[in-house]
């Protein structure tokens, strides 16, 4: 359904510099949609969510859903969140204990992430990983 909506320009993904458009990422039980901040795309996304709910018999928890707006806050983020029937999230935020940033994270944030990684895998496994392998493992996880 999502691919069909994208190919018909009902939803338009974001294009980071030198990267192809990103529209959808799935992590664990969660789904992240990356979309241009336009009312019509939000209406199409809301309709897509309702189709998913109807087809799957599952329900999207709007209480847990958040819209993270990357532009200058001027009230538009509130209007878009109302269309999606969700709340507005703010940066910095955390997802699964890791920080979310609207821009590339500062070096200090990477240190925190690497320390968490060492605590998670701990012991001899952490000692065997080089700094580059730490980052590679983190990106792959």
Briefly say what this structure is.
The protein has 141 residues and is an alpha+beta fold. It contains 6 helices and 6 strands. Strands 1-2 form a two-stranded antiparallel sheet.
Q: Gap between N and C termini, in Å?
A: 26 Å
The main pleated sheet reads as: 2 strands, antiparallel
Principal-axis shape equals globular
Order of helices and strands: HEEHEHEEEHHH
Total count of helical runs of at least 4 residues? 6
Low-confidence stretches: none
- The radius of gyration is 18 Å
Strand content: 5-15%
Strand order of the largest sheet: 1-2
Helix-residue proportion? 40-55%
E-strand count: 6
Class based on secondary structure composition and strand pairing: alpha+beta
What number of domains? 2
Query: What is the mean predicted local confidence, pLDDT?
Result: 79
Q: Main traits of this protein?
A:
alpha+beta, 141 residues, two-stranded antiparallel sheet, 2 domains, two-stranded parallel sheet, single chain
What can you see in these coordinates?
- The protein is an alpha+beta fold and 141 residues long.
- The mean pLDDT is 79.
- The longest helix is centred in the middle third of the chain and has 18 residues.
- The chain folds into two domains: 90 residues; 46 residues, no CATH class.
- The protein contains six helices and six strands, in the order αββαβαβββααα.
- The radius of gyration is 18 Å and the shape is globular.
- The protein is 45% helix and 14% strand.
- The strands form three sheets. Strands 1-2 form a two-stranded antiparallel sheet. A two-stranded parallel ribbon has the order 3-4.
- β3, α3 and β4 form a beta-alpha-beta unit.
